[in-house]
Design brief:
Layout lengths: L2 H12 L6 H33 L4 H49 L3 H6 L2 H26 L1 H15 L5 H45 L1 H6 L3 H27 L1 H25 L5 H43 L18 E8 L9 E8 L4 E6 L5 H7 L8 E6 L2 E2 L5 H5 L2 E4 L8 E2 H8 L5 H10 L11 E2 L8 H13 L5 E5 L7 H11 L7 E5 L3 H4 L4 E6 L2 E6 L1 H7 L1 H9 L3 H4 E3 L7 E3 L2 H6 L4
Parallel strand pairs: 3-10, 3-11, 6-9, 9-10
Antiparallel strand pairs: 1-2, 1-4, 4-5, 7-8, 11-12, 13-14
């Protein structure tokens, strides 16, 4: 990334701070007050020792002591104000940065989601943002405070007029060496730590989601060992980092104490010779201590830089990810739209093989289109292309003659209802899940949709839905998802094999109920069941991404070998194969019982 790109990235990362201009000014004000109080106190101490105690002037000691107490109180209130507003600004920044990152993630297509894993996205939007938030809080309370205090203490120490400044310079030079070593040693580890955090998140997610499979195949020991190894790697890296960092505190403490000893040793000679007063030595020690402590705080900040850079880079990668699927200029679609696939080609990123080739068909009002084919033939991919969850790599999809890419995404998706292959419900209630399909749906509309989907297993709309809808069976989840997908009136209803968990009788009832949708809209059904699609107006047979044939059930049953093989694999051959004559090997498939189960006559 060039310099201009880095500046833009930093600007995006810092953009949430624009909302906190007033608190930022208050932070600067409290910080300056706090620094002033810290720089004033050593001088008061020197005056008490050199003037008050030296002259046994009790009134002077009381007067200066009162001023010291006032400065301490002001400093305390300034520190509280600084901490309060720093925490408020950093917390608001973390919230807004997570929001920006989250909103960007919601725009990701399948292409972007394949580039950055879901486990990594979770870590970046939580752990990495939190690291930046913590750093920002420390920046206001420590990083800005330290150099101002350090520079102020140096100036104040110079005002004392001693010849002991060389001790501070030597201490600085000695302290730089361990800081440089620690900084260089820890940089590689912080990147590894964040990557291992991703790995722990991903491994935990896989194990938790796969618990039934793990138990069924008695693989607990293997998975425990897999997690133990990942966890052990993370522990090992953390230990290496903190072993290095823990050297810093005792090393700096040793240098600080050595500095004080040197000041007392050489200051004593000056005091004996009358070149410096005792109070001045005490004040100089205090200023020197503040200088070294400021340096220590800045050193702690420098040690944090590698981890913050890693976290910032990871969050910036999300924010800067170029969205491959973006809005077009058209924001309206005429009534009774038609979707046309025209020589559509699609290849997954990094794949040399085309998933879809030369796909041509239309979706029109009052028409039900079905797609059937073997596993991996591209059925679900076709459905994903319509709401632009993915974009074609060749050919075009037209809506009323305009390329689908020319429409705004919200305009396009508002006309489409999509029920994915895997039933996805969200934690909450039946009502909250139904309102996802139509935000302003009334209870009557919800109950009508539930009835159409044959949802007869709930007591009320306030029935709870647990995380992952684990309190419902597969068939129940599919029916609830179907209800959600049909609650709003849409021009196109896309059903991706979402009847697979229903028994034949329930499926027939649901399909009969859905016939009313066909009058004002178009339906596209992907299924492996012949009974689900056989009454469709047009059935498209896919094989290895190509349309082999299309037509009605009866036409395909007579003319398409692949379709006939699918039909024969789903019926009892001994019951439903009727031979034309005893000597011929040709046969006719009797699928009348399938028509009955599908709701036909």
């Amino acid at each position: 990334m060039n310099l201009t790109g880095k500046i833009k990235t930093i600007g995006k990362l810092l953009s949430p701070l624009k909302k906190s201009i007033i608190p930022l000014f208050l932070i600067i004000a409290f910080l300056l007050i706090d620094v002033y109080c810290n720089l004033t106190l050593p001088k008061y101490t020197a005056d008490i020792v050199d003037i008050g105690i030296q002259n046994t002037d009790f009134n002077y000691i009381i007067s200066v002591g009162t001023m010291m107490m006032a400065m301490v109180l002001i400093g305390v209130f300034a520190t509280i104000g600084l901490s309060y507003f720093s925490s408020k600004v950093s917390a608001a920044y973390g919230r807004d940065l997570r929001k920006i990152s989250y909103e960007k993630i919601l725009k990701f297509s399948n292409f972007e989601l394949n580039k950055i894993s879901r486990a990594s996205l979770i870590t970046r939007n939580t752990n990495d943002v939190y690291q930046i938030q913590i750093f920002l809080g420390l920046f206001f309370t420590t990083i800005l405070f330290s150099p101002i205090l350090g520079i102020g203490s140096i100036l104040k120490a110079m005002e004392l007029g001693t010849n002991l400044l060389w001790i501070i310079a030597v201490t600085f030079a000695a302290a730089i060496i361990p800081f440089v070593i620690i900084f260089i040693r820890t940089i590689p580890y912080f990147k590894i730590m964040q990557e291992l955090t991703d790995k722990i998140n991903q491994t935990s997610r896989e194990i938790l989601m796969g618990i039934p499979v793990i138990k069924a195949f008695v693989r607990q020991d293997y998975e425990e060992e897999r997690f133990r190894k990942t966890n052990e790697d993370f522990r090992s890296v953390n230990l290496n980092v903190f072993r290095i960092l823990l050297v810093l505190l005792p090393a700096m403490t040793l240098l600080l104490n050595l500095m004080i000893v040197l000041i007392l040793y050489f200051g004593a000679y000056d005091a004996i010779q009358g070149e410096i007063l005792t109070g001045t030595i005490i004040a100089f020690i205090q200023y020197a201590t503040q200088i070294v402590m400021a340096f220590l705080m800045m050193g702690g900040f420098l040690v944090m830089i590698p981890r913050i850079l890693v976290s910032g880079r990871r969050v910036a990668e999300v924010i800067n990810t170029e969205i491959t699927i973006s809005d077009g200029p058209i924001d309206t679609i005429d009534d009774n739209p038609i979707i046309e696939f025209k020589d559509v080609v699609y290849s997954y990123p990094g794949s040399e093989k085309e998933t879809l080739k030369d796909i041509n068909f239309k979706l029109e009002k009052g028409k039900t289109t079905a797609i059937i084919g073997g596993t991996g033939s591209g059925k679900s991919t076709i459905l994903n292309l319509i709401p632009r969850l993915q974009d074609v790599t060749g050919g075009e999809i037209l809506v009323n003659g305009n390329n689908i890419k020319d429409y705004k995404l919200t305009t396009l998706r508002d006309r489409i209802s999509y029920a994915p292959q895997k039933a996805i419900l969200f934690e909450g209630t039946i009502r909250s899940n139904m309102l996802i399909g139509k935000e302003d749906a009334s209870d009557e509309e919800i109950e009508k949709a539930l009835k159409m989907a044959e949802v007869d297993f709930i007591e009320s709309l306030e029935d709870g839905v647990s995380q992952g809808a684990s309190n419902y069976s597969g068939g129940q989840k599919q029916r609830l998802q179907l209800a959600r997908s049909i609650i709003a009136e849409r021009d196109f209803y896309l059903f991706d094999d979402c009847f697979s968990a229903l028994d034949m009788n329930t499926e027939a009832k649901v399909k009969e109920n859905l016939k009313g949708l066909k009058e004002n809209s178009s339906m596209l059904i992907v299924s492996q069941r012949i009974s689900t699609i056989m009454d469709a107006d047009e059935i498209i047979v896919l094989d290895e991404g190509e349309i082999i044939d299309k037509g009605s059930h009866d036409y395909l049953n007579e003319n398409c070998n692949i379709y006939r093989e699918i039909v024969s694999s789903q019926i009892d051959r001994s019951k439903d194969l009727l031979y034309d004559n005893e000597e011929s090997s040709n046969y006719v498939l009797d699928t009348s019982y399938l028509k009955k189960s599908a709701g036909g006559k």
